[in-house]
Amino acid sequence: MDLVLFVAVIGILIVGHELGHFIAARISGVRVEEFGLGFPPRVTTLFHAGGTRFTLNLIPLGGFVRPAGENDPSIPQGLAGSSKRVRAFVLLAGPAANILLAVLAFTLAFRLAAPDPSRVLVTEISPDSPAAAIGLQPGDMILEVEGVAVDGFSSLQQTVAAHLGEPITLIVERGSEILEYEIVPRAEPPAGEGPIGVFLGNPTREVGTLEAARMGWQATITQFREILRLPARLLVGDIQPEDARVSGLKGMYDMLAWASEIDRSSQRPFLTLNLVGVISAGLAFANLLPFPALDGGRLTFVAIEAIIRRRVDPQYEGLAHALGFALLLALMVYINFQDFVNPIALPR
After folding, report:
1. CA pair distance 8, 159, nearest whole angstrom
2. Which of 18, 144, 166, 211 is flagged as catalytic?
3. Do 72 and 3 form a contact (C-beta atoms < 8 A)?
4. What is the pLDDT of residue 61?
């Protein structure tokens, strides 16, 4: 079942991306010669439709749409011979499709179980911590800290941080009971633990479709913002390199299997849908990078043409994309190899 889920998710995200390019090209009057699943060499032709050959290819690391005249402006109804606006529209349509798929996945997840950021839930207790010593339990809802109402993570963290090494009072809700505890936050907790030794989350609440869609859009924006912040966070040591590594097919399979296992116990695919949203947003961002052979690389040449008011020689542009494609294949092989020799550590 995990393998079926993985193939379905990756297939939907790849086909969705390429379908974005395909639809934009057809709308713009650009002929599409081939719609391929996987990268060449070609295994078989699945069918022909509307002048386009739909193929299955050997290397299962992505997909492609091959418009007519991709690098040759002399080809009639070709991409390279189209206006800058048409080329930009066709190139942006693939990442845009992945953004829409990310929003849809997050929306469906929040429609099932939207987090309530105004309430704080204890999800895990660290052994030998102050929280373990006083008897806090996973599932406890923290209502007050030292007389201050808890209305989110920040209010809890700020109040605790102001009383390190001092006894403070916690008011928690456990089922139908309201309990009071006294706890002393640690001034120097062990690495990976907070002052009181709890991991926090939010309880869930029901929301309507429009609210779920708004949250889905915001979650997608957050994914892009966090990816953009990642280099700076790595430089200042806010995040460790092993926690920011790029995963390949096996890494994505492991993550989907992990999320699916948890979701089966709750009978709601909340984590799986969230992970689909994260992967789809990541694919959109990666394809927008200004690297030759990627959509962002081709868009860079369109931008250069707009700035210098003349076209870069198609032969040089084609060579850049060919070299970029070879480098991308080598990088994907390396990333997928790392997934086997150094698997991603997942919570258990």
Report:
1. 46
2. 18
3. no
4. 65
Sign of the dihedral defined by the CA atoms of residues 27, 29, 35, 39, in that order: negative
- Rounded distance between C-alpha atoms, residue 332 and residue 272, angstroms: 24
Q: How would you classify the pairing of strands 148-149 and 177-183?
A: unpaired
pLDDT given for residue 159 in this prediction:
93
Which residue(s) pair with 177 in the sheet? 174
Does residue 144 sit in helix, strand or coil? strand
What is the widest separation between alpha-carbon atoms in the chain? 78
Dihedral class, residue 148 (left if φ above 0, else alpha if ψ from -120 to 50, else beta): beta
* Radius of gyration over every alpha carbon of the chain, rounded to an integer in angstroms: 25
Per the annotation, the verdict on 146 as an active-site residue is: no
Per DSSP, 193 falls in state -
Q: How far apart are CA 287 and CA 291, in angstroms?
A: 9
- Single-letter amino acid, residue 346: L
Residues 6+ apart with CB under 8 A from 223: 102, 277, 278, 281, 282, 285
Closest CA to 183 of 165, 199, 201, 200: 165
The residues of the chain scoring below 70 in pLDDT are 61, 347-348
Q: Residues near 13 by Cβ (< 8 Å), separated by ≥ 6?
A: 98, 101, 276, 279, 280, 283
How far is 5 from 215, CA to CA, in rounded Å? 25
Helix locations, the chain, DSSP H: 2-27, 84-112, 130-134, 153-161, 209-235, 249-266, 270-287, 295-308, 314-341
Residue 12 to residue 98: CA distance in whole angstroms: 10
Query: 176-206: per-residue pLDDT in tens?
Result: 999 999 999 999 998 878 899 999 988 988 8
